[in-house]
Amino acid sequence: MTRVSVQVVIACHDLSRPIERAVSSVLQDTSHKGRVGVIVVAHGIDPDLLAARLESIDGDVRVVSHVDGVRSAAGPFNRGLELVEAKYCSVMGSDDFLEPGTMARWIDHVDAGRPDAAIAQIRLQGQTIMPNPLVRLGRRHRLDAAKDRLFYRTAPLGLIRTARMRELDLTMTEGLRVGEDFGFGIRLWANGGRIDFLGGPGSYVIGEDARERTTYAPMTMTERLEPIVRLFSDGVIDDLRPAHRYALVVKLIRVTVVGIAQSLPDADATDEDYAELAALLRRLLHVAPHGLRPFNRQDRRILDGLLDDPTAARMRAEVGRTRDLGRLERWLTPDLLHSFARESTLRRYMLYYCKRERGRTE
Predict the structure, then answer these.
(1) What is the DSSP letter of 91?
(2) Which residue, 76, 83, 270, 271, has most beta carbons within 10 Å?
(3) How far apart (Å, rounded) are the C-alpha atoms in residues 35 and 31?
(4) DSSP H or E segment with residue 113
(5) Where in the chain do CATH 3.90.550.10 domains reside?
(6) The sheet that has 6-12: what strands, in order across it?
């Protein structure tokens, strides 16, 4: 049985990745030396080569092999999480790293509060902190998946109580090129018990200096939508409480459906691509019939077009029209009543502003 309090699983599928940086960042806080361990999973590459590169790093580092021939991080992450013996566990990409002092603050937080999960504050390398999840003003502890918009952070970055993860039988979804963590994160935020947010100094940094990232490779429409389709087939959506189901559907429509629709005119999309996207939209609205209420007028042009006539010609025209719309079209909903709903654009902007102003006075 390990003596460490936290074990971080890092999956690495390419020897060009800065794996030394990732591992060192996890173990760098001398104030908590001996309380953190790292499990590096060599995904389809020689584990001895990784071990040789990491042997000079002082700390509890274990390298294991995983070979499945699949271009996905799900398999190696599941392999590493199976081996975890510590009270808390975490996952990390081999391109990513923690800022100095971050792990120490994480451990201090879980020592004091004993949450079932603690969500990391993240930022892209070279950029400012990302405002997701956009939790309620002044809220850090005992978060709610709907009220605190946790589904906008499906990646389970931070610390997870290992016993709770295993009680919920949480695993990454294998066989997907992207979105392997959707089901894991959604079920954790909805059913994980006490969920806290690890704000303040110190962030998890998503590395942007890798030679290539798997998630950036070209994908078909079916591959892009498969993570959401699997939420239906795996029963994840059906198992959610109504309020959580509604919040998740709004997030999926906003980020996936609208996001993809806005990018397709520049990607030589076909009528079949739009039809597939429209079919997913209808499926989401079937389980949350009021899912379009919080969307602004700009987004509704795109969504209504998908529901009415999901063809390349119609959607290129709709997306083109939305690019020059003013603030009122981007802020207000068609019926005005829902402009101040929790998931509305205007409500989000107001919360951004309040958090920014509050930060200036603290």
Answers:
(1) E
(2) 76
(3) 9
(4) helix 102-113
(5) 6-214
(6) 60-66, 36-43, 6-12, 88-93, 158-161, 117-120, 195-198
153-200 pLDDT, tens digit each: 989 999 999 999 999 999 999 989 899 999 999 999 999 899 999 988
Strand-pairing partners, residue 129, are 123
The model carries a pTM of 0.93
Here the tokens at position 302 are 């795109």
Residue 78, classed as helix, strand or coil, is helix
N-term to C-term CA, the chain? 43
Distance CA 75, CA 11 (A): 9
Q: ∠163-166-172 over CA atoms, to 5°?
A: 130
Paired tokens of 171? 């695993």
For residue 89, is pLDDT > 80? Answer: yes
Domain 6-214: CATH architecture, name and number where available = Alpha-Beta Complex (3.90)
Confidence check: pLDDT of 246 > 80? yes
Distance CA 197, CA 149 (A): 12
With cut-offs at 50, 70 and 90, classify the pLDDT of residue 361: very low
